[in-house]
Amino acid sequence: MAVVKVDKLARSVVEGPSLMTGSIPTKPWMEMPVKFKPGNYAYPAKPDILQYLDSQQGLSFPNAHEWNPEDDDWHLPENWKEIIIKGLADRLDRFRSLKIFMDCCVRCGACADKCHFFLGTGDPKNMPVLRAELLRSVYRNDFTLAGKLLGKMAGARPMTAGVLKEWFMYAYQCTECRRCSVFCPYGIDTAEITMMLRELLLMVGLGINWAMGPVTNSNRTGNHMGLTPQAFKGNVDFLCEDIENLTGVKVNPTFNRKGAEILFITPSADVFAEPGIFTCMGYLLLFEYLGLDYTWSTYASEGGNFGLFTTNELMKKLNGKMYAEAKRLGVKWILGGECGHMWRVVHQYMNTMTGPPDFLEVPKSPITGTVFENAKGTKMVHISEFTADLIKHGKLKLDKSRNSHVKATWHDSCNPARAMGLLEEPRYILDHVVDQWWEMPENTIREKTFCCGSGTALNTDEIMELRMRSGLPRANAVRYVHDKHGVNTLACVCAIDRATLTTLMNYWVPEVTVAGLSELVGNALVIEGEQRQELDEGLRTLV
Amino acid sequence: MNLIEALKNKRDQILATWIDRTLDSYVSSGFFKRSKDRFANPVGANIREGLSALYDLLLSKAPREDYMPSLDQVIRIRAVQEFTPAQAVAPILELKWVVRQILSADKNTRHLLSELDSFDCDIDRAALAAFDMYTACREQLYENRIRELKSGSYILTDSACPSALARRKAQDEPPVH
What we know:
The complex is a heterodimer.
Chain A: H1 6-15, H2 47-54, H3 80-94, H4 96-104, H5 116-121, H6 128-143, H7 145-150, H8 161-171, H9 179-183, H10 190-203, H11 209-221, H12 229-247, E1 262-265, H13 269-272, H14 276-290, E2 294-296, H15 312-329, E3 333-336, H16 341-348, H17 350-353, E4 380-382, H18 383-392, E5 408-410, H19 414-420, H20 424-433, E6 437-438, H21 464-470, H22 472-485, E7 489-492, H23 495-508, E8 513-516, H24 517-524
Chain B: H1 3-9, H2 11-23, H3 30-34, H4 42-59, H5 64-78, H6 85-104, H7 117-151, H8 153-157, H9 162-172
Helix pairs in contact in B: 2-4, 2-6, 4-5, 5-7, 6-7
C-alpha cells in the first residue's frame, strides 16, 4: 500500500474542521427544493402508453407529453395549476377519507420514524407526516379559511412548480406499505394520501413508466408482462415439464375451462420469472395432489393490480377483470395466489368498488368442507388460508426433511399482513413444512413488518440505490437472524417481494435467498406414485 | 500516560463526538442519534456499532481484514445514500480531527498530539479500505441492475412475442432440401 504523506493529509483535515460529511439543514423544509439526479427518480411514463390508456373507456390519462425530471421545464399544460386544484377539489368531494385525513392530523409525530424511506435516508420529507404535509399545505391554502387568511403562518402555501416537483419526488418515495398507519392514533392512511398525489400528478401527464407499462399490458392482454394467452399457457406448460422431470408427477392444468369449480389467479411473475416459478410449481403440485377442480385463466392472468397506485378507475377496472372472468367461466369461487397489491384491493376496496360478486358462492374447500366465512364478501380465498386449512385437517402428507436445506425466517408481506390480516396461516404452514424457522425481531414483523422498499411500482432498476436504502430496515432484521441462527431463506407471500427481496438480500445479506411459501409446501409434499429425484434444493434443484 | 492509554481513556468521548458528527451528515439526524433500538433505527445503530468497533480495532493495530466487517457496516449504508463518494467515506478521516479536538482539550493529553503520526497513518489506511469498499458496493449495485434486466420482465416486454420469434427464425433459416 502506498504510504500517505501524513503531514499533508493530516493538516488538511485538522486545519479545516468543516463537516466533510455533508449537510445540516439550514432552511425550513418548505424552502428546500428537490433535486433530481440519476438514481433518485423512476423514468417517466412514455406518452404513447398514457395516450393508449386515455383512449380506453372509463379511463382518463390526459396531457401525455415528453418530459425529464432533471430539466427545469417539465412542459406542463398551460392551465396545470387549475387542473390540480380542481382535481383536488373533486377528490375532497368524492373521498370522505381524504377530507378527514387532510383535517385531522395533529402532527404528533408518531409516524415520523416508522417509515422505511425515512429510516433509510434521514430525509425529513420522508416522514409520513411531512410527506402528507406536501399535499396538506396546498389544501390549507386553497380550501381552508385559516390558510386563506394566514397563509404560511397556518402552514399553507400556494401550488407552484416547485411544489409539484416535490410531489413527484416523494409520492414515488412511498410504497404505500401502511406501516405508518399502524402507529397513527387517528388512523390516517398515508398510503391513500400518496394515492391521491399520484392521481393528481397523472392529471397533468406525470407518471412513471414502471407503473404505467404494466397496467397498460394488464389492460390489453390481462397481465403485466403483456403475455398473450398462448405465451402464458406455454410458460405454465413449461413448468409442468420441469415438475415431471423433477418429481415424476405429471401435471395437467386446464385453461379458460368453463364449469370448473375454482378459478385460480396469481401474479404473472409466478409463471415466468425466478424465483416465482418455483412457487408456481408448488401450486401446480398441490392442486394435482388434491385433484382440485380448478382452471387458470389466460385473461385474468394477473393478480397484481398496479391500478391501486395509479388511479381509482384503473384499479376498479383491473379488479373487475378478475370477477368478470369468474362470471364468464361460471366458477363457484376464486382462489388467489401469493400476491401483494391484489389482496389489498380485494380486501379493502373491492366490495364497494366492483362487488359484491353475488354470482359467486361463499368459498368452500372441496377437500375439507371448510366454509371460508371470512371471504363471504369477496368470494376469494388466499392460497395460504386454503393450505393451512388442508394441513389442519390432515389432508397433506408432508416430509419436512425435504426442506432440510432451508433455515427460514418469515417476512410478512405488507399488503397480506396489514391489509388482510394474514399473520397466522403462513406461520402455521411453515411449522409443518420446515424443520426450523426463526422470527425476526418483534418490531419488524406482523403488523409492524418492514416493506421490501420496492412496492407500488418502485421495483425498477433505475432507482436501485433508493430501493437498497429503503429496504435497509427489512434487510437489517434479516441480517440479525442470519447472524444469530444461520437463517438462509427468507420466505414470503408476494411476487414483488420475491423478486425485489432477492436483489435486496444480494446487496445486504448475500447468504440469504428468497422463497415463496408454496414453493416450500411443494418441496415437502409427498405424492403417491412420485419418482422424485434427489432434490438437494427442492424444486429449484438443477437436474 | 502514553498515546494508546490516552486514546483508550478518552474512548467514550471520542466515539460520542465522532458518531455525532457522522450522523450530522443526515438532514434530519435527531432520531438516528437518539434511538438505541437497532431494528427501529438501522442507520444510527449500524454506524454507532461499526465506528465503535473500528476504533477499538485501530487502537489494537488490527490488520485490514479484521476491521473490514466494521467498515462494511458503515460504508455499505452510505454507498446507497445520496452522498458523493468523498462524503460517503469522509467520516473515517474525520476521526483524526476528533482525536485532536479531544486530546487538545485536556492539558494532560495535549502533549501527545505530536505523537499522532502513526495513528493518523492507520486511519488513512482504513479510509483507503473504505474507498475500496465503497467502490465494491457501487459495482454490486450495477451488477444487480444488470441481473434484474437480464432475468426478468425486460426480455418479455421489450422483445417480440414467441410466435413472431419463431416465424422470424423460420425465415432466417434456409429451407432444408
